[in-house]
Structure prediction request, 262 residues.
Amino acid sequence: MGVLNVTPDSFSDGGRFVDVTSALDHAARMIDAGADIIDVGGESTRPGAAPVSANEEMHRILPIIEALVTRGARVSVDTSKPEVIRAALGVGAHLVNDVRALQSAGALEAAVSGSAAICLMHMQGTPSTMQEAPTYQNVVDEVTAFLKVRVDACVAAGIGRDRLIVDPGFGFGKTLDHNLELLRGLPKIAAATGLPILAGLSRKSMLSTLTGRTVNERLAGSLALAFAALDGGARIIRCHDVAETCDVVKVWTAVRGRGGMV
Ligand code: PT1
Prediction:
C-alpha cells in the first residue's frame, strides 16, 4: 500500500503533492514500483496534527480518488468522516482505511453499503494528544480486545468479515516499547482476529528513537520494520518507499519459502 498524502501539512511529504496532477504522477510512480493499493488521505493523523473539515478533506481527495479509480487503480481512502466515506465510495474507492475504526458518529453506517474493504485501526486518544502519555497494562491484549469489539460491531451492522482488515496502529498512542511489543505480538493479533493485518511503520518516529534519524533518513529502518511485520503475519504494508518495500516483500517471501510474490 503506497501512501498518497494530499495534505499541505503532512508529516513526510508535506506540501509536495497538493495539486491533482502531481498527486496522480506520484500515484502512477508508486503503482509502477509495485503498489497494489494507493492510500489517499486528506487529513494528517500524525502526532499533533490539526483536524480538517469534511468539505476541505473532500475537496482535496475526491478528484484524485476518482481519477485513480478511472485509471484502474485499487484505491483506499484514509478518513474517519461519514461524509467523506460516502463520497469516496460514491466515486469508487475500494477500501475505507479508518484510524478511528468507524467509531465516529455515522461512520459505520456510511461504510456498510456496497462491498468496499474496511481497515479498522487501534488508536489510544486522538492525534492531537495521543503521544502525551500512552498507558497500557498489556498493549497486545488491549489492542486485540479493541479490534475484536470493532470487528463485532461491523459484523453486527452488516459488514461481512471477508471485508475486514485490522491494524494495531503503530505510533497512535504508543511508546517505542508499546510499538515493539505490538510488532512481536502480531501473530497473536492475527490468530485472535482471524483477519488480515495491515501494518503502517514507514518513517515513523519510533525510528527516530531507535536510529536517531530524521524523517527522510528512515528508509533502512522502515525496511527492517517491514520485514519484521511480514514475519509477524502482516499482509499489507503501508509505506512511502514502494519500490524498496516491494523488494523486501520479494526477499521475505523467498526467505520464508513460499516462493514468488503472494
Ligand atoms: C497506519 C497509518 C494510517 N498511519 C493505517 N492508516 C498513518 N491503517 C496514517 C510517528 O510516530 O499506521 N495505519 N494512516 C500516519 N500516522 C502516523 C502516526 C505518522 C505516527 C507518523 C507517526 O511519527
